[in-house]
Design a protein that fits this description.
Chain lengths: ~300, ~210
């Protein structure tokens, strides 16, 4: 069955299952294709999704053990502190990676029904950059050194709060790991691009030895209210969510993730526009995409 | 991501609050605004307030202890990153947060399932919701009231319809996977899920109207 074959009645009967994400991928794509064209189904789906969201309250409350609760809280606070510190340009330069070889993607690859088959993702082939940009490494290393200098100042300044010191230490560790991921002997780099203005592009660095992924995007406009970007790893049989993200005001974005994938499984990487909570499967055509064509 | 960059002014609409909870809703809106402004202490307060609910839904879906911790953290991290984009007209803060938590939990479950290429497993009997309405003083009163309402609505459903919703919503199974697990025809599962959702919607609406 394809999206073209989905009638209104068939789609309507599937809305309840769609509202709780219980449709198989092919059926979900077909129903969504109809919903996008049908105001009545869109309205009904909105109501059903509200109903579905209420089910979350049916779970018996489960307070965490104090150690578990505190451990998660500490990690969150550390990450948030680092996030805030990274937003202060006078203290910590923002991470920006420069890649001098933007990939090329043909406009025709953005087929309207691309969601229905993995092959159409792969057909969006861009180029692969076999070697991580030296410029990128220099920039990250320079930032790392700047942050390290700020860290030294902070640790000797008695007025500096421990939160900032911890945040700087966390960022330095993060940059060290990033350098290792960018320069590893088993790091593959996939380039993503599109014909959309203003020439958005991105690169996915995949350190296969540690299963660490770093996506860096540029020229990404802010999504509409209630929408976010979502990253996808595409294999022959799956589209695996790499998480949702928002670009900075300058259009830059970075997503880091850890995911174990067989070395030969990745076929392409894509970024789509999705609802704020993310989607179990992509619901729009990729904003940028690129295919893996070789490994280092 | 820069949490302080390009922050739009926070706008609070009339909101969709299904049961009394104005004080809590206002507090949550304030916390989200502060989180959107890059105030990590607001995140700490937000976490302290809602971790029992988030932990409950994540634990219900993921079940593996180590994974539960990671998913709970990622749910709150996503809330931190997207606090500025919360739209009160689309639902309460709790519902927004729980939707995020469920999405991240299902991502984890489905990823693990794919990696292991596991056949569907589990005891369907254990997936039936516990309908006894217990109380927990640590949980926000509004959430407790919403739980009471949802359980009352679910209790009116035939068990097979409730099970279909349960396996779809909490286990993240597709209808064909539910059919396989329960050894029922796919058409039967589709019908049960459709009828169950329709009844649930009607019951929730009726309960809300009675409470006004």
């Amino acid at each position: 069955m394809t999206s073209d074959a989905m009638t209104h009645d068939s789609a309507r009967e599937a809305l309840e299952a769609l509202a709780i994400d219980a449709l198989d991928a092919w059926e979900r794509d077909a129903v969504m294709s109809h919903v996008e064209q049908c105001p009545a189904c869109r309205a009904e789906l909105a109501v059903l999704r509200i109903t579905a969201s209420e089910l979350a309250y049916g779970v018996r409350p489960a307070p965490m053990a104090s150690a578990q609760r505190d451990r998660i809280r500490a990690r969150l606070m550390s990450r948030a502190g680092a996030d805030v510190a990274a937003a202060e340009p006078t203290t910590v330069p923002q991470y920006q990676i420069l890649v001098p070889h933007p990939a090329q993607v043909e406009t025709k690859t953005f087929a309207r029904n691309w969601m229905t088959s993995t092959s159409s993702w792969i057909a969006m082939a861009a180029a692969i950059i076999a070697v991580a940009s030296v410029t990128s490494l220099i920039q990250v290393s320079s930032e790392r050194d700047t942050i390290a200098a700020a860290y030294q100042l902070a640790t000797t300044d008695r007025a500096t709060g421990s939160t900032l010191v911890d945040s700087l230490r966390s960022i330095i560790d993060d940059r060290d790991q990033m350098i290792a991921n960018l320069t590893g002997p088993k790091t593959a780099v996939v380039s993503l691009a599109s014909s959309n203005a203003p020439s958005p592009k991105g690169h996915m660095f995949w350190d296969q030895s540690s299963n660490q992924w770093i996506f860096v995007g540029h020229n990404l406009p802010r999504p509409k209210p209630g929408r976010v970007y979502q990253l996808w790893l595409v294999t022959a049989s799956q589209k695996i969510s790499g998480g949702v993200f928002m670009p900075q005001s300058n259009g830059d974005a970075m997503v880091k993730m850890r995911y174990a994938l067989p070395n030969d499984a990745l076929m392409s990487v894509a970024v789509t526009d999705e609802p704020a909570e993310g989607s179990p499967q992509p619901t729009t055509t990729p904003y940028i995409a690129g295919a893996r064509t070789a490994t280092r | 991501m820069n949490p302080q960059a390009n922050r739009p002014p926070y706008s609070k609409s009339s909101g969709v609050i299904l049961v009394p909870g104005e004080r809590s809703a206002a507090d949550d809106a304030t916390l989200l605004r502060r989180m959107g402004d890059g105030d990590e202490h607001a995140l700490g307060t937000f976490y302290d307030r809602w971790h029992p609910l988030v932990h409950a839904i994540v634990q219900r879906i993921v079940r593996l202890a180590g994974d539960v911790d990671d998913v709970v953290e990622e749910a709150f991290w996503q809330a931190w990153r997207q606090a500025e984009r919360y739209d009160a007209s689309r639902g309460s803060v709790q519902t927004w947060l729980l939707t995020i938590a469920r999405s991240r939990a299902l991502d984890r479950v489905r990823t693990v399932r794919r990696q292991r290429e596991e056949p569907l497993e589990g005891d369907a009997e254990n997936d039936v919701l516990q309908l006894a309405s217990d109380s927990d003083p640590a949980v926000d009163a509004e959430a407790a009231e919403r739980r009471r309402v949802v359980l009352a609505a679910l209790a009116t459903l035939p068990s097979e319809q409730r099970q279909a919703l349960e396996l779809g919503y909490y286990a993240g199974l597709s209808q064909s996977e539910i059919a396989e697990r329960t050894a029922q025809p796919l058409g039967t599962v589709k019908t049960r899920m459709r009828l169950g959702m329709q009844k649930l919607r009607d019951h929730l609406q009726s309960i809300r109207e009675d409470g006004r």
